[in-house]
Design brief:
Blueprint (H helix, E strand, L loop, with lengths): L5 H16 L2 H23 L6 H28 L6
Length: 86
């Protein structure tokens, strides 16, 4: 069995990559899909249905984590693609 923190780290790494590449539209589709994946993993592996308060809080935390990962990647993208002013 994989440790419980591996799937969120993989999803966060993908969000970071989307930010570095500057794929905003793809990211907007990726976040809801990844939250559904996490809810499904919690339901299938742990047996906790997605409407329990602790799962809702976990999904909110995961959404904030994905936003932070994308934000860091987007900042790096903006630094790398910045054109100096003349």
């Amino acid at each position: 069995m994989t440790p419980v923190f591996v799937p969120p780290l993989i999803l966060g790494a993908v969000a970071f990559y989307l930010g570095v590449r500057g794929y905003i539209r793809l990211y907007l589709y990726y976040v809801p899909l990844s939250l559904v994946i996490i809810a499904g993993l919690l339901w299938l592996v742990a047996g906790v249905p997605p409407y329990v308060n602790s799962v809702v809080l976990a999904l909110l935390a995961m959404g904030l984590f994905l936003c932070a990962c994308f934000g860091m990647g987007w900042i790096i993208h903006r630094i790398l693609t910045h054109k100096p002013r003349d």
